[in-house]
Structures are given as C-alpha cells and as structure tokens.
Request: fold
Amino acid sequence: MFGIFIFYNMNTQEFTELAHKFKPALKRISAKRRFLGFIDADDLCQEALINLWKRSKNGEFQDKTVSYIIRSCYFHIQNYIRTHKVRADMLSLEEPVAYNAEGSFCLKDIVVDESGFFFDKLNSRLIVNEMMNNGLKKKEKDVLRFLYQGLSLRETARRLGMSHVGVLKIKKKISLKYAAKYYR
Reply:
C-alpha cells in the first residue's frame, strides 16, 4: 500500500480500486474522530472518500505518498467536524424521544405549532414601518431596514460603507428612541 500514486485522468473504476485500498485506513481515522452525536463513523468515512475523489479529480494528489493522502483525509475530517460542531445541539424531528404502548413519539409529534408566529411577524413589520415613517434619519432608516432583513452588523456596515461600530451606535440610538413606545 505504500508508494507514490499518480492521479491524473482517473476514471471511476480506478478510483474504486483506490478507495478500496484506502477505506480501512479511512474507517480507522473516522472511528477515532466521532466527536458529534449526529455524525457517525460511516458519515465521516464517506466525507473523507468524497474529499479524496474531488481532490484526485483536480490532480492535487499527483506524485504524493500514501501517508500524505491519508493525512490530508484526516485533516479534512477534522475540519468537517470543526465546521459542523455548532450544530451539535440540534435534534432530528424524526428521532424517537418517548415510547408508550402504541409505539414511539417523535419530536414533531410533541412540538406544538406556533401559529401565533404570523401575528408576531406582522406586528413587528407594522412597528418597523411606523418607525421608518416617524423621525428617523436616512442612515438610521437604512440600518433598521438591513437589520430587519436579517443582515448582521458587519454585513449592514459593509453595505452602507461604514464601520460595524458605527452601525452598532445607530442601532442603540434607534432602540433608545423607540424602546419606551413599542416595548414596555
């Protein structure tokens, strides 16, 4: 298994043979790196194989050793885990959480539909419209509009050509103006 592999113009059959050679090592790496409950070893191994396929198609592994290739898959798995770690608190709505005589209950069966969300959104939209038409300067209106659309402070600042600290100050100024009137 040791040696140098050349990956240019690789077809599917050649990659299948290569993946068959690398799979035991990738499975070992994947089994050791299961830090998240919702990603199992097979998912990580598959992610490493996808990375191997993409990088080999791009010719990134030309004249590289086996240890180099396996190490690159290891680093890809580490990066994949790091980027998906924020979602570790998420639960599947399909996952069974309770059992009784009739069977199991999923989260989607238990969680109540919040139909009041529509009215909350409508109310906030009316408040924003009223604020826009009652005494805000142009910059304040722009900041309020972008923040209401869901942009972050930095994205808003980038669009307006100002610093994020300036956007934060304008946001605080708006909230001080209207907090007593709308949010008691």
Observations:
- Helices lie at 12-32, 41-57, 66-84, 107-110, 117-132, 138-148, 153-160, 164-182.
- The chain has eight helices and four strands.
- The chain has a mean pLDDT of 76.
- The CA atoms of residues 38 and 88 lie 7 Å apart.
